[in-house]
Amino acid sequence: MGAWWTWSENFDAPLVFYLTEQEKDIFGQGDSFLPCIEKHSHTLIQLEPWFTATGHTQVTVVGQPKARPWLMNMVQYLGHQDSHCQAQGLEMLQHVWSQPLTKEDLAFSFIACPDIMLLSWQP
Fold it and tell me: Quick check: 89 and 100 in contact, CB under 8 A?
């Protein structure tokens, strides 16, 4: 089995979403945490600032198919208004900053957060 970037299916259907203020919290000042997130999630993440009044950044993620929704789930939790969801998102973020995601990390189950259905991560 080769490196993740040698498998064409890891580049199918990129995940694209937009961030506003969260970018620095997730990727660090000057995107200093971006390389470790990419390495630990086996993804390639491209950040493109959009020149809008709200300062959106377009985030494009390619890589292992299970890692993409895991990262999106983390971002949704971090941006959620519910403090429990935010705490879970922060735990996920600190996890991917510090160590590679495992198959167990990428196992999902659905839970209901106030006003939204999100995937749940169990550390």
Answer: no
Predicted pLDDT at 19: 85
Question: Can you say whether residue 27 is alpha, beta or left, with left for phi > 0 and alpha for psi between -120 and 50 degrees?
Answer: alpha
Residue ranges for the chain with pLDDT beneath 70: 1, 51-53, 108-123
Region at 120 (left for phi over 0; alpha for psi -120 to 50; beta for the rest): beta
CA dist., res. 42 & res. 86, Å (int): 24
What pTM was estimated for this model as a whole? 0.81
CA–CA gap between residue 1 and residue 45 (Å, rounded): 22
